[in-house]
Amino acid sequence: MASTQPGSTPAHPRTVLVTGAGKRLGREIALTLARAGWQVAVHHRHSVDDARQTAADVEAAGARAQTFFADLADERSVRALLPAVVAHFGAVDAVVNSASTFEHDSAQSFDYGGMETHLRANTGAAVVLAQALHEHLGSRDAHGAVVNLLDQKLWNMNPDFFSYTLSKAALEAANTMLALALAPRVRVVGVAPGLTLTSHMLSDEKFAQLHRQSPLGRSSTPADVASAVAFALANGSITGTTLLVDGGQHLMRFERDFSLM
Q1: How many structural domains is the chain composed of?
Q2: Rg over CA atoms, the chain
Q3: Which terminus of the chain has a lower count of CB atoms within 10 Å, N or C?
Q4: Alpha carbon of 87 to those of 62, 81, 115, 131, 171: distances in Å?
Q5: CATH code where residue 38 lies
C-alpha cells in the first residue's frame, strides 16, 4: 500500500503531478522533488519546450519524468489530466498546484470575465485535481497529499490584481473544506510565498529592493518555496493549514502589489 503517512514505506516509486512545471516555481518544485526521489509528471499548457527541458533535468537527477498538456481553465481538459498521468506511471501519490493565471485588474476594472478566468484556472482546477486524486487513491487503499500554492498577500491584503486575489482566497478556503472532506485519504496543505521571482514589471534593482523588505531582510527564494512543498508532502501530520514562506512579509503593511510599488 503506497502512502505519504509518517513511518510508511511506499511499495512503488512515489509519483507527483506538478502543474505549471515548465517554468519558474513549478520547475524548481519539480526538480527539488525529483532529487528527493519522486517521479514527476510535468504539466504544461503553452510552455512545451520548457516542460520538456524540465522533464530532461528531472531525469538527469535520476527520476522518471513525462510531460502532460492540460488547459487548466477547461474542466474537460483538467479532468483528463490525472487519468493520463496514472496511465503513464501506474499510480499518482500527490498533486502540487503551482500554475496560476495572474492578470491585472482592479475593483474599478473588475468584470465577470476576468473573475471567471482566474477562478477556473486557479481555484477550480486545483479542486478538481484534489477530487481526482482522492478517487484514485481510494481505488488503491492508499494515502496522498495535495499542496496548493497561495500568496502571502492573502494575509496582507491590497486591492491590486483583484480577480487573482479572489481566486487565491477561494483556494485558501477550499484547502480547509477539502482537508475535511477528503480526510483521511488526502491531506491538503497550502504554501504561500512572498515576493520570490521578478517579472517584466520590475527592474532587477527594484526587485532586489522589494525582496529585502521583510522582517528577516529577505523574502522567499524558489528553493525556499520548493523545500516547503517537499516538507508538506513528507510530513503526514499536516493538513488544512498553510505554510507562509515569505521572510515575514505578511507581517508588514503593503498598500500595493509588489509589481506596482
Answers
A1: 1
A2: 18
A3: N
A4: 21, 10, 33, 17, 28
A5: 3.40.50.720
